[in-house]
């Protein structure tokens, strides 16, 4: 059983609770689309945690993704990495993107997002876990999105290992996963009216 699946709290002989440390400290961010603001001004750091117990305390306290208003995002990133293309750890990276049918929001989204969070904090990608920066869930009118961000789009072995593991864990086959470099996402975002997305890898 992995650390993150532990439900029972351990106790010392003195009766003090011992929390189970995670390998990394993680920061939870929240994005709310307030029109008229710059994108960055709508981004808030909620909290950081470094134990299994603190993860569950936060997860159980916040709203499920499926209940968030349209335009909102949750982001979970390693402490010290900001959830934006511009961060030095993201600049050369990209994301594995899963687009989910919003009709299935109630059925799939919360399960997929929780599984994604557990993959991250449980360091489920073996050596490739080092390349993980974070993950996002985005509630949108057209379709919801869940993505895992990695630090180096050119590190194909690690990118593919992460994508295959992600697909196996979320169990949403046969839906495809697409890997897109952040520079391409940013470029297509800056070209108004252009909806063409360029993908590096597909599973
Ligand atoms: P989005 O919120 O990731 O996707 O980006 P959405 O809303 O589904 O829109 P679409 O373009 O994918 O269809 C929306 C916009 O937010 C982008 O076009 C950028 O203007 C801005 N934005 C998003 N991200 C992740 C960043 C970022 O990392 N840095 C900056 N500067 N702007 C961003």
Describe the structure in your own words.
- With about 200 residues, the chain is of the alpha+beta class.
- It has helices at about 50-60, 105-120, 155-170, 180-190; strands at about 10, 15-20, 20-30, 45-50, 75-80, 95-100, 130-140, 145-150, 180, 200.
- It has a single domain, classed as RNA Cap, Translation Initiation Factor Eif4e (2-Layer Sandwich).
- It is built from four helices and ten strands; from the N terminus they run ββββαββαββαβαβ.
- Bound molecules: 7-methyl-guanosine-5'-triphosphate (MGP).
- 7-methyl-guanosine-5'-triphosphate (MGP) binds near residues 39, 85, 138 and 140.
Could you spell the SSE succession in H and E letters? Answer: EEEEHEEHEEHEHE
User: How many structural domains?
Assistant: 1
DSSP, total strands = 10
From the helix content, strand content and strand pairing, which structural class follows?
alpha+beta
SSE topology sketch:
Blueprint: E1 10-11, E2 17-18, E3 21-31, E4 43-51, H1 52-61, E5 73-78, E6 94-100, H2 105-121, E7 132-138, E8 144-150, H3 156-170, E9 178-181, H4 182-190, E10 201-202
Antiparallel strand pairs: 1-2, 3-4, 3-5, 5-7, 6-8, 6-9, 7-8, 9-10
This protein binds 7-methyl-guanosine-5'-triphosphate.
